[in-house]
Amino acid sequence: MGKNRDMSEVVLRAEHLTKRYPIKKGLFGKAANYVHALEDVSFELHRGETFAIVGESGCGKSTTGKCVLRLTEPTEGKVLLGEEDFTSLSGEALTKARQKMKLIFQDPYSSLNPRMTVADIIAEPIDIAGTYKTRAERDARVEEVMEAVGLDLAFKYRYPHEFSGGQRQRIGIARAIVLEPEIVVCDEPVSALDVSVQAKVINLLEQLQDRLGLSYIFISHDLSVVKHISDTVMVMYLGHEMELADKEALFAKPLHPYTQALLDVIPRIRHERIQDKRILEGDVPSPTNPPSGCVFHTRCPKCMKVCSERAPELREVEPGHLCACHLFDDALSEAERQLVGVSVAAK
Ligand SMILES: Nc1ncnc2c1ncn2[C@@H]1O[C@H](COP(=O)(O)OP(=O)(O)OP(=O)(O)O)[C@@H](O)[C@H]1O
Ligand SMILES: [Mg+2]
Questions:
Q1: Is 189 exposed, middle or buried (0-12, 13-18, 19+ CB in 10 A)?
Q2: Neighbours of ion ligand 2 (CB under 5 A)
Q3: pTM above 0.85?
Q4: Do residues 71 and 98 make contact, with C-beta atoms less than 8 angstroms apart?
Q5: 275 lines ligand 1 (CB under 6 A)
Q6: Domains, the chain
Q7: CA 327: distance to chain centroid?
């Protein structure tokens, strides 16, 4: 959790991000259909904040991260860095702005070049940017960063395969922070690691955040990790933003039936309610052909007549607590409120 979080300073603003991946038909064929990976997602990241993005596999978490970094171009929407429209930058200005944002990958085994030494892997971003004039300055920076992430300097000239998963993730983190970014997108940074190593890497990320004033976009499907590290949480389902709130509010009082079901499957958090635990049944529908209305209606225990007809708006239900669900729409008619189906079984 960001100790030095400053909610008055927005470092990044995602506005209406939408990504549709075309599915091509034949070699020269036009797009026959689209994967609706991301639909109208907006959020703000504040200085020193850890903003978590959670949801089941395929819900669009990594796509959000990639659009934010412009590793893939959003189909619609934009990303503002401070006041600057990052999505419209090109050339030199884009290269410069890119240095403010870095990515930590999920898989520390495949993301590091096996033919480069640890020192060269960490130094690569500064070598490319030409940050230091002399070799001595460059080497000093590498050592400084290695120390900051808890890597023994004796390992400088070793190769990635000689390291454990946790150590490799430290190398990845060192590489991400060497250019002093403001924002780090952490995409499942500990999911590939043994549980015993996860806590150490999480602690390192927290320490670095406090020391360097970093803001994190922290992508994870593991709610117990998110409960520990985040300040703010955005819950996604099938590319849509379902709920967004302060961590405390979200875990204490989840509003969306989807969030409630997600939280119910972590017994450590909601053990008191294990008797009437709500289990999500059925598979996530295809993002190529998403359900009409609310995308969650096919699996929602509280599905009403309106839910298959109209998409709910993202509303501020309580101060700072946003939720996209018709349950919080006061303007519905009696007919629209009619309960239609319970697809989630009590267990
Ligand atoms: N390059 C691509 N081309 C086509 N479809 C894609 C591409 N990348 C992702 N998708 C699809 O977009 C949707 C969202 O994918 P994304 O990787 O963002 O999900 P995720 O939430 O990160 O999942 P996971 O938890 O498994 O990492 C999925 O249906 C995925 O199959
Ligand atoms: Mg992903």
A1: buried
A2: 62
A3: yes
A4: no
A5: no
A6: 10-100+181-340 (3.40.50.300), 108-180 (no CATH)
A7: 26
